[in-house]
Amino acid sequence: MTGRRIFVWALRAGGVCVVADLIADRRGFTLVDPYFFIPFACLSAAIAGPLAAAKAGSVWASVLQACSIPAAILAASLSLLNLAAPHGIWVFPEWPLLLESAALSLASASASAGIARLLVTRLSPRIVAWGFRVATLAAILAYRAWPGVS
Asked: Is-contact 37 31, C-beta < 8 A?
């Protein structure tokens, strides 16, 4: 393993830990709310598009890599939340919520990667990646402005 790859993996692990800590601190026991858990798992679509546009390899490799990032953040957030909880209090999402979020994460990441690959045939990969980033930011802002979402 080269020094660059070690640095990239250390940077990813650090990012996962920082975001997981912020989510566990900010959301608390409402972390397993379906209105937060499922949309956060579907952020894999925002990651899969630029990955599929930048890499010439398999679309499935981009999809699995994109799905693993939100899953790692949610798992680390749940772990931190359970470590900080008082003795005897455990928070775990129910199985249907886990299955639904995993299925929607895979479906949205697959669709995003497929659309990115189709767009790369006509546009520059950099334009496609930035288009997905702008669309993600717009979706997050629209989700935050939606009535009833805190």
From this structure: yes
pLDDT tens figures, 104-146: 999 999 999 998 888 888 888 889 889 988 988 898 888 778 7
Q: In whole angstroms, what is the distance from residue 124 CA to residue 127 CA?
A: 5
For residue 57, is it within any domain?
yes
pTM: 0.80
Q: How many domains does the chain have?
A: 1
CA-nearest of 63, 69, 66, 42 to 114 is 63
60 located within any domain: yes
Burial class (CB in 10 A: 0-12, 13-18, 19+), 144: exposed
CA separation (Å) from 82 to 59, 74, 94, 119? Answer: 35, 12, 15, 42
Range of the domain at 110: 3-145
